[in-house]
Specification:
about 50% helix; seven-stranded mixed sheet; alpha/beta; binds S-adenosylmethionine; 2 domains; about 15% strand; about 260 residues; Rossmann fold
Length: about 260
């Protein structure tokens, strides 16, 4: 199971304060001999951002926190200097909410399954045996898994459900305009998704919803189907199989047989 840092909110704020604060202090007290151009300030802001992300990764903060630091550190350095128009702030908040609303509502932010793992998922879906196998990605993000599995497995029906508005719109457009015909994206909560016909249910969520999700899947999934969780364990229910993926984050696919 992947190592995620405890108290990520506190640690993220501390890292932001240290790196953005240091950059602001360096800018404020740098000797007059140092060039004070737009580019040197931007370089300083992005150096601080890089430092924050490297530190976050070293203490095992998850990808969503690293993305937040990548955006917030340079913003904290540049905003006081350039004072952008006030409407940019609600716009930025709307954009963030469009992709990360489930970070607040469900404690599940957006981060994406990598290419190697997607390939493995397509291989784990059972072969067509009279009827088309069904694969469901619960919380499909930008639709990358749905697209990859549907392309690799034209014999299957592949469905993604998502409720973060902008993630849903991007996934829907991507699959509707460019996706294979056996892929579908629905604006639907994972808690209202019918999984009774699925052969494989996949979820890459967070520790928060796993106990409730396990209850739902145990009650609804048919015998012989499988549930695959990327990285996150179900409390008190050891997986039947663990498949390690040879990638940089040492992904593990945890599999339960229904
Ligand atoms: C970590 S991302 C995984 C995205 C995609 N499955 C992948 O692996 O690339 C989890 C996604 O689940 C979505 N999500 C969280 N709770 C949800 C819910 N109750 N209903 C639908 N989607 C949800 C989030 O918005 C987010 O896009």
């Amino acid at each position: 199971m992947s190592r995620e840092a405890r108290n990520p909110v506190f640690k993220t704020i501390a890292i932001l304060v240290v790196f953005a604060g240091s950059a602001i202090v360096v800018w404020a007290v740098a000797p007059e001999t140092l060039p004070r151009t737009h580019w040197s300030l931007v370089a300083l802001a992005f150096a601080a951002s890089l430092g924050a992300m490297v530190t976050g990764r070293a203490i095992h903060l998850g990808p969503a926190w690293l993305v937040l630091m990548a955006i917030a550190t340079p913003s904290l350095v540049l905003v006081p200097v350039y004072r952008p128009p006030i409407w940019l702030f609600p716009l930025a908040a709307l954009l963030l909410a469009g992709f990360y609303s489930n970070g607040a509502l469900e404690k599940v932010p957006l981060y994406l399954t990598n290419t190697r793992t997607r390939r493995q998922l397509a291989d784990l879906l059972p072969k067509a045996n009279g009827t088309k196998p069904i694969f469901i990605d619960l919380g499909c993000g930008l639709g990358g898994v749905v697209s990859a599995v549907a392309r690799a497995r034209p014999d299957a029906d592949v469905i993604g459900v998502e409720t973060a508005p902008l993630s849903f719109i991007l996934a829907w457009l991507r699959l509707t305009l460019f996706g294979p015909r056996n892929a579908r994206i629905r604006f639907q909560s994972i808690w209202h998704t019918d999984v009774s016909q699925a052969d494989t249910v996949y979820a890459f969520l967070s520790p928060a919803p796993m106990a409730r999700l396990n209850e739902k899947l145990r009650a609804e999934m048919k015998a012989g189907s499988i549930f695959i969780s990327n990285s996150f364990a179900v409390p008190g229910a050891a997986p039947d199989t663990i498949i390690p993926i040879d990638d940089s984050r040492q992904t593990q696919l945890l599999i339960w047989q229904m």
